[in-house]
Amino acid sequence: MDGKPTTIEEHPWQVALLINGNFCGGSVIAERWIVTAAHCLADEKDDVKVEVKVGATDYHDGVSFYAKSFFVHEEYNPDTCEHDVALVRVDSTQPAAIIPLATSSTQIAIGEGLTVSGWGNTLDVGESSDGGEPSDQLLKGTVPYVENETCNGPDSYAGGIFPGMMCAGSISGGTDACQGDSGGPLTKGNSPEDAILVGIVSTGDGCGKRLKYGVYTRVSSEREWILDKMSQFGN
After folding, report:
1. Which BP terms does GO give this entry (predicted)?
2. Is residue 182 a contact partner of residue 201, using CB atoms and an 8 Å limit?
3. What are the pLDDT digits (tens) for 1-48?
4. Which residue in the list 11, 27, 84, 202 is annotated as catalytic?
5. 60 flagged as catalytic
6. Mean of all residue pLDDT scores within the chain
7. Under CATH, domain 100-220 is a member of which superfamily?
8. Would you call 182 a catalytic residue per the annotation?
9. Per the residue annotation, which of 27, 156, 170, 182 is the catalytic one?
10. pTM of the complete model
């Protein structure tokens, strides 16, 4: 919510996932591979239709690809949101740009502005009588990185943020991911050419609330699992 209009050219790795009537985001990390959030797929059967929309600022105009298979992290915990990561393998090579994954040596300074993007709701469902308003157009927002110690404060998540998770947002609230942004990218970098995927939209207490920072899966913590799965099932 509180995002600004952007274009797919600024976020060429961004995709929309349409899953059994639900909407999530994702990022292209190899020619046939999309990384997203486990909670987008954890309750779905193996034969569920997963449509991947690629290459358009208005996701309705995107080129459609379909999942050949998907993989939810085996240790995903829906109660704590630990290991909230999943992979989708599409049925053919798609044209989107590939974004590199953060590594253990990727440095993020406290307060550094990171970019979250997606087509999610522009209002918190708790604040909108119609359940929130998703965006047809891709939106982006800049959210400052928050160290886990701060995010675990008693007025924030009180110990609920684990090492494989990370937080971003302003203490006063405002710009934040929201419903429909799940699985989408949190990136570091000032241009598409130097962008790195550091987080995956995971959870939070509402959208844009004071002291309730956005919570993301920390990509560097899940990098080994991601690469192992892609190696096992083919790039």
Report:
1. proteolysis
2. yes
3. 788 999 999 999 999 999 988 999 999 999 999 999 999 999 998 889
4. 84
5. no
6. 93
7. Trypsin-like serine proteases (2.40.10.10)
8. yes
9. 182
10. 0.95
